[in-house]
Design brief:
The chain is of the alpha/beta class. The protein is built from 27 helices and 38 strands.
């Protein structure tokens, strides 16, 4: 009977899922509502010998996701009280569960609310499974290289040489049918002929041969592949993925530089970079091999070194998300550096990064900033939403330090590696050349740092230790006559100065210092261990953009060739400190949300409009009402007489009304001159209707009448559903100039309370909302509610392609949407947090 249900066609209220491996069914889970509206019975079975492998839990997670899309809110299940495995499975899901004992049986009720507790439980299970699956890749006991040639010049031979010369401590083999040894490494005719099954196989054969090699590796029992080969066509790529999924192998690549783990107990360097990476504390994951080489070289030169490295290439499987989870628990990584050109699951990546970056800094190069992204539709929201803004929202919310170049990434990594985080953004500058101090102050201001005046007490202290003629401001010009001892004392005092969070020491070589034998650089590195605040050096004569100078106590001090580099790095450090100091945001619950009714509105519209489109004002208002989004009162009219009657209904305000034409696809009413304002009396209503009807004959389907709004601040709020990143919520200054002024901020939904606060305070117009110049602040609580409800609307309805609220009128007495446009597209809902079998 269970088999019949599993094989039957899909029908509402029922779902059966099978787990299988090698053609053998190993698990079955199903639910059936039995005609009930909100609840369903669930049953689950896992094959003997495969319990405690996570099969049942994963099946239930998928059932939970499917049930939610059908509006099911609870599962019930009966189990014998001695069936501890099933009871533990339900208890450990992360969902609210209750039990009722009925004789020898237990009736469990599982509530399917998706809250942070459930997502964290799913995340923890996924993390444990993910890290375990990476062990054969990053901690293999045996490695084989397929495609190592007999003559120099092949990529496979270069990787084999790197593994051998790097001192790989485990078993190493080559696979080449023509020889018995390559570079002193034993060679065998095939993977199957190896004396030990390799955990990891490096594949460096022509593209046409890759699928067959992958299949051979899987049949032999290999558990991970690194495919450096480039140029696979679609058929070859599909065959490679099929082999990896069939045999449960993790895959790095194709088209990659390789991987490395510098743990001395392993010394795995399976790359074809020119040099071995220096062992250290930075984890590196890149898609570009060239960027990978630059980062490996830069980190080695700085002395930071690398803990593990993955060149992800075309990223068929192993991703930046996987590497973040590996670094989180490897016990060696203190910095994570990423160069990612694409994101497979940005929302899962964001959750992982938010957790990891609270433990270690996560830095990235924001690649592709000038990409045009999607071709913008005509709405304000789509015009404002660029790929740069979307990526910026992801990085900001996740606490990722996003730099603009590989050089800036290394400059920032040097500071975060060597110095404590500043408590704020206030910088003191000390120099032995006044002009360099001015350049440094300019760079700090341009980077968003503050250069405050010193306190009178600190001014007196510095006057007492610096030479005559020193200018004690900020910057502090210690003059060319400053000695090493005087500069040391000055820097130490500034690091203890109230109101100062960091010190930048900008130095130029002088004949005065050379004549006295003073080493001013040594003054900066003399006692960093006593300094609780970060100290940076700027040396204009320095050849490298950044160096780490050895300090007396064994630490290091970052030294930059330009003030701009030092200021950028310090600004990144200050932003990280501020992000860590903020409370962790939560997604607030909302009252009066009718999500199921909203889904019905969407389904009914798409049933009649299978290609999607812009909603007419009536359907749009119905949808917004499901989420309690406040619209100004309005009435629809399709004739002149209807317009007069509608105006009479609205004149309870102050007698003045607004008339807006409508037809499918009309977005910018003001630009089309499709709006009449401040209409009074029946004659003006009739004249306005006739004008619109005449000018837009054959287009206009009706008009919307609204009372003339009171004065207030005109804002803009909207959503764009990004195909990769999910819904992006935008907010900023509204009205007819919203695109010209481009005063917008953006965050990815679902919004937390912290995200909403930042959305409101980030645009340049924020002081208008907060009560600038003695004005009364707008109703911030209602504004927050509007953005949270808009976020919930977009998160619940993946069919929502765009929502455009412009203007939104904000006053001290409340917030009202004056004009709303919504576009729907036929899209299937997908759970972005659902774990999937590989």
């Amino acid at each position: 009977m269970a088999a019949d249900r599993a094989c039957a066609p899909a029908r509402p209220g029922c779902r059966a899922l099978l787990a299988e491996t090698d053609g053998r069914v190993i698990g079955l889970a199903e639910y059936d509502t039995g005609g009930e509206k909100d609840g369903a019975e669930i049953s689950i079975a896992v094959a003997d010998g495969l319990h405690h492998r996570g099969v049942g839990t994963l099946l239930v997670e998928h059932l939970v996701s499917a049930a939610r899309t059908e509006g099911i809110t609870t599962f019930t299940a009966d189990a014998f009280s001695e069936n501890h495995e099933v009871l533990r499975l339900f208890a450990d899901l992360g969902l609210r569960t209750s039990r009722r004992f009925e004789g020898p049986e237990v009736r469990c009720t599982i509530h399917l609310d998706q809250d942070d507790t459930y997502l964290s439980a799913v995340e923890a299970r996924g993390r444990a499974a993910d890290v375990a699956s990476l062990l054969p890749l990053l901690r293999p006991d045996a490695v084989a290289v397929v495609g190592a040639g007999r003559t120099p010049g092949s990529v496979g031979r270069a990787i084999l040489h790197h593994l051998r010369s790097g001192g790989f401590t485990r078993r190493l083999f080559a696979v080449n049918p023509g020889v018995t040894s390559i570079l002193g490494v034993p060679s065998h005719p095939s993977v199957a002929a190896l004396p030990k099954t390799p955990d990891l196989v490096i594949v460096a054969v022509p593209a046409a041969a890759v699928p067959a090699v992958a299949d051979e590796c899987g049949r032999a029992g290999a558990r991970a592949l690194v495919v450096v080969t480039a140029g696979l066509d679609h058929i070859q790529a599909e065959a490679l993925l099929t082999a990896c999924r069939t045999y449960g192998m993790r895959l790095v690549g194709p088209n990659c530089l390789g991987i490395s783990n510098t743990d001395p107990e392993l010394s795995l360097d399976a790359t074809f970079a020119a040099e071995h990476p220096r062992p250290g504390t930075a984890g590196v994951a890149v898609q570009s091999g060239g960027v990978g080489i630059a980062l490996l070289d830069g980190l080695s030169r700085l002395g930071i070194g690398v803990s593990s490295f993955a060149s992800l290439g075309d990223k068929y499987d192993v991703s930046g998300n996987d590497m973040l989870q590996w670094w989180e628990g490897d016990g060696r990584t203190e910095l994570a550096l990423l160069h990612l050109e694409s994101f497979g699951n940005p929302r899962a990546f964001s959750r992982t990064a938010r957790r990891v970056t609270r433990r270690i800094p996560v830095l990235t190069v924001d690649a592709g900033r000038t990409e045009a992204g999607r071709k913008a539709a005509a709405s304000h929201t789509a015009a404002a939403a660029t790929r740069t803004m979307t990526r910026g929202a992801l990085f900001t919310q996740a606490g990722i330090t996003a730099t603009r170049s590989v050089g800036e990434l290394l400059e920032t990594a040097a500071l975060l590696h060597s110095q404590p985080l500043p408590e704020g953004s206030r910088v003191a500058i000390v120099t032995n050349a006044g002009g360099v101090g001015v350049l440094t102050a300019d760079a700090c201001a341009e980077a968003g740092l503050a250069v405050p005046p010193l306190t009178p007490a600190m001014t007196d202290e510095l006057l007492a230790v610096l030479p005559d003629g020193a200018a004690i401001g900020n910057p502090v010009d210690a003059t060319a006559a400053v000695s090493e001892e005087q500069l040391t004392e000055c820097v130490d005092r500034l690091t203890r100065c109230p109101g100062i969070d960091a010190v930048i020491v900008a130095l130029v070589p002088t004949a005065v210092a050379a004549a006295t034998g003073d080493d001013l650089v040594r003054a900066v590195t003399a006692t960093p261990g006593r300094r609780a605040r970060p100290v940076l050096a700027v040396r204009l004569e320095q050849d490298a953009s950044v160096r780490l100078l050895p300090a007396v106590d064994g630490g290091t001090i970052p030294s930059y060739a330009e003030p701009q580099a030092a200021a950028r790095a310090m600004a990144h450090a200050a932003r990280r400190a501020a992000w860590l100091a903020r409370p962790v945001g939560v997604v607030p619950g909302l009252d009066d949300v009718e999500a199921q009714r909203a889904r019905t509105v969407v389904e009914e519209y798409l049933a009649g409009n299978p290609d999607g489109g812009w909603l007419d004002p009536r359907i749009c208002a119905d949808l917004l009402a499901c989420y309690g989004i406040p619209l100004i009162p309005w009435v629809w009219a399709e004739s002149e007489d209807d317009a007069v009657l509608a105006a009479d209904r609205l004149r309870g305000h102050d007698g003045r009304v607004v008339m807006k034409a409508h037809w499918p696809g009309l977005l910018h009413k003001s630009q089309q001159r499709a709006v009449h304002l401040d209409l009074r009396g029946d004659a003006q209503i009739r004249a306005a209707f006739r004008d619109l009807e005449t000018r837009f004959a054959g287009l206009m389907t009706g008009v919307v009448l609204q009372p003339l709004a009171t004065r207030g601040t005109e804002l803009f709020a909207g959503v764009v559903q990004d195909e990769v990143f999910g819904p992006l919520v935008l907010f900023g200054l509204g009205g007819t100039a919203t695109e010209v002024l481009a005063d917008h901020a953006a965050r990815l939904a679902p919004l937390t309370d912290r995200d909403v606060h930042e959305l409101i305070t980030s645009p340049r117009c924020a002081p208008l909302l907060l009560g600038a110049n003695g004005n009364t602040p707008v109703d911030l609580g209602e504004l927050e509610q509007l953005l949270l409800r808009l976020s919930r609307l977009a998160s619940d309805l993946p069919q929502l392609a765009e929502a455009d609220f412009n203007p939104v009128l904000a006053t001290p007495g409340g917030v009202t949407v004056l004009d709303a446009r919504i576009r729907l597209l036929p899209r299937r809902p997908q759970d972005p947090y659902l774990r999937r079998l590989r």
